[in-house]
Amino acid sequence: MARVYNKTFDELIWDQVNPQSKELLNDFILDMRTRKLSPITITQYQSDLRAFLCHLFRAYNNRFVLELTRKDLMRYALCLVEERGLSNSRRNVLMACLRSMLEYAELDDDWQYEINASRLIRSLQKEPIKPIIFLDDTTVMDLFNRLMQCQEYQKATILMLAYESAGRRAELAQVEKYSFLDPARNNTNVVIGKGRKKFSLLYFDTTRQAAVKWLEQRGEDDIADLFVAGEGSAKHEADPMDVYYMFKSMRQMLDLPGDDELEFGTHSMRHSALTNYKNGTHNVCRLLGKPGFSLDQLQRLAHHESVDTTQGYLPDITNQELEGMFGIEIRA
């Protein structure tokens, strides 16, 4: 069967495609250009995603792409093979292209996209799906101590602030240094989170310890923000992408099994913080003598609209609970 891969693109339909979806695509293309991907790769992504958005216009009443559920994406993946007759390989390429755009939306705090539904859509070939990196408290503290020993005080500060506050990348980038000059204080200045919510990030002794060291190392300057990028006359406030690259540079210090290319960032720390706060292993739980926190309490810490969103940040421990209930071992 002859296959025409982008037959679903239609210029007349494109003019009517959901403007929010177009804006997300434009942002994603700009991000790829900033990362200096090859023009050929960028053109292919743009072509495939424009075709996908035209498909949304026809099949999903022009719905905004970030409103699609896992089942919607499963139906699209099935459509590629059963209705359009694409090969497994081509189907996987198209789904990977869509997944990349949704991962960008998940990382970029300007888009209110908490959980990437496409992550659960498996490839037709046996390719491992990259899991979210959950770090236990011992691993986080080991990384923190290694950063402190290397006098990487800024990275140690942002690591612990992310871990203790469960803050998002854009929120961390807004933190100002004055918040750490008062030893009796446990919260930052007010930051603006998703949905234009305003709140302070919480922190405790370990973050304060690192922040004091960082501010001493940094010395006097006119920058109000806690985190900075660049050096000398080029030094400036760190933006969310600078925060992203700080965490990316820490990845090599983590001794994790499996794929060396697994992403590590504020999203990993947000998942890890909420998980460890829930099960009571977080260092703050030990500091306060708390056995753990409820989902409702964690929802408030994470500033989620729904407790279901908070639940989605926690690993599925169904099998462990069943093993404990019945005294058995559930095997793969």
Structure description:
With 332 residues, the protein is mainly alpha-helical. It folds into two domains: 11-120; 137-312, hpI Integrase, Chain A (Orthogonal Bundle). The protein contains 15 helices and four strands. The model is unreliable at 1-6 (pLDDT under 50). Helix content is 52%, strand content 5%. Strands 1-2 form a two-stranded antiparallel sheet. It is globular and about 60 Å long. A hairpin with a 6-residue loop joins strand 3 (228-229) and strand 4 (236-237). The protein has helices spanning 11-14, 19-34, 39-59, 70-82, 88-107, 137-149, 153-165, 169-172, 205-218, 240-250, 266-279, 283-288, 295-302, 307-312, 318-326, and strands spanning 187-192, 198-202, 228-229, 236-237. The longest helix is centred in the first third of the chain and has 21 residues, at 39-59.
Concise overview:
This protein is mostly helical. It is built from 15 helices and 4 strands. Strands 1-2 form a two-stranded antiparallel sheet. Strands 3-4 form a two-stranded antiparallel ribbon.
Alpha-carbon distance between the two ends: 38 Å
SSE ordering: HHHHHHHHEEHEEHHHHHH
What is the typical, i.e. mean, pLDDT? 86
Global morphology: globular
- Name the CATH architecture of the largest domain: Orthogonal Bundle
CATH class categorisation of the largest domain: Mainly Alpha
Strand coverage percent: under 5%
**What would you give as the CATH superfamily of the largest domain?**
Intergrase catalytic core
| Broad structural category | mainly alpha
**Largest beta sheet, briefly?**
2 strands, antiparallel
Number of helices: 15
CATH overall fold name of the largest domain: hpI Integrase, Chain A
Helix % is: 40-55%
Q: What's the structural domain tally?
A: 2
The main sheet orders its strands as 1-2
The count of DSSP E runs of length 2 or more, i.e. the number of strands, is 4
| Low-pLDDT residue spans | 1-6
Oligomer: single chain
